[in-house]
Specification:
three-stranded mixed beta sheet, about 350 residues, Rossmann fold, about 15% strand, 13 helices, alpha/beta, globular
Length: about 350
């Protein structure tokens, strides 16, 4: 049991990220001082929304420079903090060199932040933003898991440097985190294992997340002939921020937490938007047949390999989210609200154009 003092500052790595921005806003709204570690503390485009959030809240924000690949660069931001949130990690599928672009920053960054926490005497708890990707690679893995759904006991064993390297990077990084946690007794570790995070970005014009790309694909016409019934989990970014907050400040919180609100698929996600946006935007109305995807998928998108299609299309996703509901009292938002709010922001920003 670890009780964190709310009068002490809290460090957030990658503080201007999609999830982290909402977490920082939540901390500021609670009157907490945030040590925001970002790559460039002078880049107004990327941190202006956090300054605005601080100006409109009782909390205070202080910016620090921090880089996942620069050893010791988070130490200054961590000094005096009892609670550390490590959210910084690349989330992209469009990569040329998975080792350099995904594995190294995820693994080295996690090792550096947690080893730094061993050196900073004030630290009592570290919350790491992990992913359901550290639990499974493909929807078929959830079907093959005990009782046909993933739980916190399950680890990803099917990703590799060559197949789904993003999932591989999250698995290696979280395993490293637990390894370092076991090497000391000063602080405890909690991980938030999120499924696909959707919901409005606080800084949409400068948000680089695969989540935005999926929404653009649904609303931009790429899938107007049909969307694959690709099984996945979805959770709202605002619920993810709340989960992080509670994981930090609930004394009894421990271990991993699957943070996934809805078992769904790409076609259902598009269908939810049809009543409100279907007349103006080329949203998918039907399922794309698996055989057709097998033919055109690998040509249309290098991610859609035949193996990927076989393991995910027309395959349901099932995750057990009972632990986070029970331990942290999380109540998830309806999928309709998440989808509509996400889409509205992309329309307002001109990222998605109508028919």
């Amino acid at each position: 049991m670890t009780k964190i003092d709310k009068s002490k500052p809290v460090m957030v790595t990658g503080a201007n990220g999609y999830v982290a921005s909402w977490l920082v806003k939540k901390l500021l709204d609670e009157g907490i001082t945030v040590h925001a570690a970002v790559r460039n503390p002078n880049d107004e485009k990327k941190i202006g929304h956090l300054k605005t959030a601080a100006a409109n809240s009782p909390g205070e924000i202080k910016f620090f420079a921090g880089d996942l690949l620069q050893a010791g660069s988070y130490k200054a931001a961590m000094e005096g903090c009892e609670l550390v949130y490590h959210t910084a990690s690349p989330f992209t599928m469009d990569i040329k060199d998975p080792q350099k672009e995904l594995i190294d920053p995820a693994l080295k960054g996690t090792a550096d932040v947690l080893n730094t926490a061993k050196e900073v005497a004030s630290v009592l708890r570290v919350v790491v933003t992990s992913s359901c990707a550290a639990i499974y690679t493909d929807a078929i893995d959830t079907v093959n898991a005990p009782e046909g759904r993933i739980t916190e006991e399950v680890w990803n064993t099917t990703a590799s440097l060559d197949y789904q390297p993003y999932s591989y990077s999250k698995t290696l990084a979280e395993k490293k985190a637990w390894e370092i946690e076991k090497s000391q007794s000063q602080w405890d570790l909690v991980t938030i294992n999120m499924s696909l995070v959707l919901g409005p970005a606080l800084n949409p014009a400068n948000t680089t997340s695969e989540s935005i790309n999926i929404l653009k694909m649904l609303g931009g016409g790429e899938l107007k002939m049909g969307a694959p019934k690709m099984g996945l989990g979805v959770v709202d970014v605002r619920d993810v921020a709340e989960a992080h907050f509670r994981a930090g400040y609930t004394p009894e919180a421990k271990g991993r937490y699957i943070t996934s609100a809805h078992d769904t698929d790409l076609l259902e996600m598009g269908a939810i938007l049809l009543p409100k946006y279907g007349d103006k935007y080329p949203l998918p109305k039907r399922a794309m047949p698996k055989w057709l995807l097998m033919l055109i998928g690998p040509m249309a998108n290098k991610l859609f390999t035949r193996k990927y299609i076989k393991n995910n299309v027309n395959v349901p996703f099932h995750a057990d989210n009972s632990k986070i509901k029970k331990d942290l009292g999380i109540e998830f938002m309806p999928l309709k609200d998440t989808m509509e709010d996400s889409f509205r922001v992309l329309i307002d920003e001109g990222i998605i154009k109508g028919k």
